[in-house]
Amino acid sequence: MSISDAIDCDIHPGVPTIKALLPYMNDYWREAFIARGQDNFQPASYLPNSPIACRSDWRDGDAIPGSNFDLLQKHALDGFSARFAICNVLYGGSFSISETMGAAICSAVNDWVRAAWLARDPRLRASIVVPTQNPRLAVEEIERLAGDRRFVQILMPVALDMMLGKQHYWPIFEAATRHDLPIGLHAGSLYRYAPTTNGWPSHYLQDYVSNNHAFESQLLSLISQGVFVKFPELKIVLIESGVTWLPGFLWRARKTWRAVRPEVPWVDESPIEIVRRHVRLTAQPIDGPGDPAILERVLNQIGSDDMLLFATDYPHWQFDADRVLPEGVSARLIEKMTHDNPLATYPRLRETIQ
């Protein structure tokens, strides 16, 4: 089935070097980065030379994958006939130990993506990257940019300093709902803490798979600590979380909630219903089995056609050739993923086409 005119909910413009961000910093931070010679704030989960960081025929020599505007336009927008594509820049602002440095990088990234990408193609939209280390600074950045309706989401890494349901983060959720902005939780860690509860792994295989643990624990934290009760309009988008873990998670969360619900009386409905109403997932990578019939059965177990969002994850590469969607996804679900679900998830996209 054609995915023409689809809404791509996850592409990744790459910051070529810190020099690209310096024009968007104040004198203090511009001089600080030059004096310290600091660069390469790429997240460790997508090292530029790793195979999954970029499809081989999409590479631009030694350049940071996704940093060439013309190639992104050719491959991700024209290549997949996108109607819109949401830019999620993965860079060091959200990961910096220094709160003020993190805020400076995030602010520069947001202004850079606005000037160097959004202004050059009307099909592009973007997420606001925020310094998650300090929710007050994060809210300041959201307020600074919320008036630009081309920013359609707030982007945060899933593995943070603490559980996401804690009230520490609630000012960010309050700002998000105030401005009709979903929270996008992207796979990735601050890499200051072990990605598993049993310590540091030895191999990339362990690190990669353990991202699921972070998504599951953060999702259960949001539910258990009453975030969706406090913010009934909040939407959470799990980006690059995979998909097939969700049915098992939902089954276990509901089973345990039934047994211990007096502990959390404010959670007054099944976690399954909460997740179906508040949570969406980008479907690339879709960590499904090769057998289309089995994949279809797993997707049916989610119990909702409203939750999956189409994404190419450009320039990251975890699919074969141009087959962004695997066999086993029904035509009806593809239509929902590529058009209806993104428009329902991102109110600011709906404004654009009305």
Radius of gyration: 19 Å
Overall pLDDT confidence: 93
* Number of E-state strands: 8
Estimated helix fraction: 25-40%
Give me the secondary-structure category.
alpha/beta
- Assign the CATH class: Alpha Beta
CATH topology: TIM Barrel
- The CATH superfamily label reads Metal-dependent hydrolases
* Widest sheet, order of strands: 1-2-3-4-5-6-7-8
CATH architecture descriptor name = Alpha-Beta Barrel
List the helices and strands and how they pair.
Layout: E1 6-11, H1 27-36, H2 69-78, E2 82-87, H3 99-116, E3 124-129, H4 135-145, E4 151-159, H5 170-178, E5 183-189, H6 204-209, H7 211-224, H8 227-230, E6 236-239, H9 246-260, H10 271-278, E7 279-282, H11 292-302, E8 308-309, H12 331-345, H13 347-353
Parallel strand pairs: 1-2, 2-3, 3-4, 4-5, 5-6, 6-7, 7-8
List keywords for this structure.
354 residues, alpha/beta, TIM Barrel, hydrolase activity, hydrolase, Amidohydro-rel, ACMSD, Metal_Hydrolase
Quick synopsis:
The protein is of the alpha/beta class and 354 residues long.
How would you characterize the overall build of this protein?
An eight-stranded parallel β-sheet has the order 1-2-3-4-5-6-7-8. The radius of gyration is 19 Å and the shape is globular. The protein is an alpha/beta fold. The longest helix is centred in the first third of the chain and has 18 residues, at 99-116. Helix 4 packs parallel to helix 5 and helix 12 (331-345) packs across helix 13. The protein has helices at residues 27-36, 69-78, 99-116, 135-145, 170-178, 204-209, 211-224, 227-230, 246-260, 271-278, 292-302, 331-345, 347-353, and strands spanning 6-11, 82-87, 124-129, 151-159, 183-189, 236-239, 279-282, 308-309. It is built from 13 helices and eight strands. Strand 7, helix 11 and strand 8 form a beta-alpha-beta unit. It has one domain (7-353): TIM Barrel, CATH 3.20.20.140. The two termini are 26 Å apart.
